[in-house]
UniProtKB/TrEMBL annotation:
Signal peptide: none annotated. One of its GO terms (molecular function) is lyase activity. This is Citrate lyase subunit beta / citryl-CoA lyase. Pfam families: HpcH_HpaI. Its cofactor is Mg(2+). Substrate binds at residues 50, 116. The keyword Calcium does not apply. Mg(2+) binds at residues 116, 143. Keywords: Lyase, Magnesium, Metal-binding. One of its GO terms (biological process) is oxaloacetate metabolic process. InterPro entries: Aldolase/citrate-lyase_domain, Citrate_lyase_beta/mcl1/mcl2, Pyrv/PenolPyrv_kinase-like_dom, Pyrv_kinase-like_dom_sf. Residues 1-220 form the HpcH/HpaI aldolase/citrate lyase domain. It comes from Rhodococcus triatomae.
């Protein structure tokens, strides 16, 4: 699986020491993870390890062994079940010691706190700002649903009997708002029914539409869908680029120095430019190019 992962078009790969590893296999897993991180053949993905949470007896050894052996090849540590800022700060301090002990650049390795229970969601602002190493807030839906006693066994789907909206909306928006407040990424967690790709797409579309930056994939077949869903649609990217061009032109002296202008049937102003910038930046990050069918700004209306 690790060899295969090296060539997959995912933005990030995380190697797990937590819930996917049986307790008696933890020690061996640390060695294998460290070796895999340091091997050749990765194709530019962000490399991350998920350690065990601080309520176990494993976190300290996970960090000391993996960062000690392979810290130069590690971009971030994914910290599960974070209940408050102290868990992030403890990891920050330990990382700093291990980095110093091994001559690594201090502070380079990031932290990705996983929000997986009610207390973590309650303390999310403090968690997001607990350390400059925090880069990403990650939703852990399976643990979260268990922690709030939601009556479901299918993660990512609405609980049976609930027909009044999206049972996840409050949690997702709270994570997203905290991420945007503190300038970090918001990442949705896994969809566990890996053979149901339509359902994976629906689940990914829900968080992509809200503004999340990405979603975990558990199987290679989910990658293409995730990459597509979290990139803007081509027509939206083209429209965003057109708005940016038109707005630039019409606010310039040559274009009449106007603040609000019509683009076709739509009035655009500074706020439209900001919305367009978001779509354009996501599209560019995904390697999108503008198609030739767009109208140049001079002809786009006044
Ligand atoms: C992931 O760790 C989850 O609990 O959903
Ligand atoms: Mg979990």
């Amino acid at each position: 699986m690790i060899d295969k992962a090296k060539g997959l078009p995912a933005d990030e790969i995380f190697l797990d020491l937590e819930d996917a590893v049986a307790p008696i296999a933890k020690q061996q897993a640390r060695i294998e993870v460290a070796e895999a991180l340091a091997e050749d053949g990765w194709s530019g993905q962000i490399r991350v390890v998920r350690v065990n949470d601080w309520t176990t007896e494993w976190t300290w050894s996970d960090v000391v062994e993996v960062v000690g052996r392979a810290g130069a090849h590690l971009d971030a540590v994914l910290l599960p079940k974070v209940p408050d800022a102290s868990h992030v700060q403890a990891l920050d301090l330990l990382l700093t010691q291990v980095e110093k002990a091994h001559g690594l650049e201090v502070g380079r390795i990031g932290i990705e706190p996983q929000i997986e229970n009610a207390v973590g969601l309650t303390n999310i602002d403090a968690i997001a700002s607990a350390s400059p190493r925090v880069q990403t807030l990650v939703f852990g839906p399976a643990d979260f649903m268990a922690s709030i006693a939601m009556r479901t066994l299918v993660v990512g789907e609405q609980p049976d009997g609930y027909d009044r909206g999206d049972a996840y909306h409050h949690i997702l928006m709270t994570i997203l708002i905290a991420a945007r407040t503190h300038g970090v990424q918001a990442i949705d967690g896994p969809y566990l029914q890996i053979r149901d790709l339509d359902a994976f797409r629906r689940s990914a579309e829900r968080t992509a539409a809200l503004g999340f930056d990405g979603k975990w994939v558990l199987h290679p077949t989910q990658i293409e869908i995730a990459n597509e869903v979290f990139s803007p649609r081509q027509e939206d990217f083209d429209r965003a680029e057109l708005i940016l061009d038109a707005y630039d032109f019409h606010t310039s002296a040559a274009g009449g120095a106007r603040g609000a202008v019509m683009l076709g049937d739509e009035m655009i102003d500074e706020a439209s430019r900001k919305m367009a910038l978001v779509v354009s930046a996501k599209g560019r990050a995904a390697g999108m190019a503008r198609t030739s069918s767009v109208t140049p700004p001079e002809d786009a209306g006044s």
